[in-house]
Amino acid sequence: MAELYDFPYKRTPGPRAADREGAELKDYTKETALRKWSGMDLPFFLLVMLILITGLVMLLSASFPRSYYETVNSEEGPRPLYIFIRQVIFSLLGTGGLLVITRVRIEVIRKYSFWLMAASIGLLLFVLLKGISGGGAERWINLFGITQLQPSEVAKLAVVLTFSDWICKYGERMKTFKYGVLPFAAVLGILSVLLLMQPHLSATIIIVALGFIMMFAGGTRYFWFLVFGAAFFLAAQFVMSNREWLGEAAGAFKYAIARIDAWKNPESMKLEGGWQIMQSLYAIGSGGLLGLGLGQSRQKYMYLPEEHNDYIFSIVCEELGFIGATLILLLFAILIIRGFWLALHCRDRYSALVVTGIMALLALQVFLNVAVATNLMPSTGISLPFFSYGGSALCIQMAEMGIVLSISRDIPDK
Asked: Range of 414's domain?
């Protein structure tokens, strides 16, 4: 036994311990080599791709009846794969953009964060002048006849990048009203006014909530969040007490009040705004525990509006059932948790704040979309990331994931 010890300081490993250490070193070498080969966090990347592929499969199932219906009278004839093929093209473009962005240093992205915010405000102003209308709102810009861009998607990313930059610059001064509240509230106020003029209530909710999350992470005093909460409660009470007057005076309030009325009484307002809520609930209820089977949805045959967009989760529930929908939400949860894990291991505060903001944005959109589909909250027009149809939105979401992966390159291997 004497040869096993280096008395009195430490013990020399025996044969079994040496084998274990050798195996651990071998595994670590393989892991390190794989990480060095990719340079980015592979679990996060694989989760993104798995969710994206699953989303494409569900979009194919949900969209082919509408694709057939909308193209049956076209010159080319019916094209049941029209929506799906377009989404595949944007998925490939988004994946290519993701891989490119992973090679861009976060310092470069930070340098242009303010200009991205200025561009998003400019685009929101342009929407009010020459935007494209649809569904009672004016939210889109035509991009050379190829696709339509929602400037609100750009504004969400701009809020994350710009607020993270300001928080790092202000440092301890975030505890003061002048630095920790005023500039952030001013930007959120400008964005909210421009969005409500479209009107785009869902984007307003997400951007304001995202801004508060960034301020909270940056160190703004809790007192100001209590003030904001009290102000919101009083404003909500005022709106509900004066709903008729406000509905006649302002289009945005009229739009929001109609959604709230349909949410509270969808059965009695089937033809006045409650139709999509009822059809969504029918789809979810029809799925049961195991679902009707992939491709077997009945509500997608022109019963459920926006079945390939805002209400695609209802089709997921109908075809895959409670278990399938839960597994998809579990994938989102794992991706979000992995993202926050990366935020905890970032090498600098700006990177940590950016990853925190992007993952909070993803979590907000998933939660709000599912809440709308299940009638937990009024319909707000929030898409499900990586699942809902929308080329520009998907590309921006993939760009956000690329930023997270770019930051992950600087996280130490061990």
From this structure: 55-101+279-414
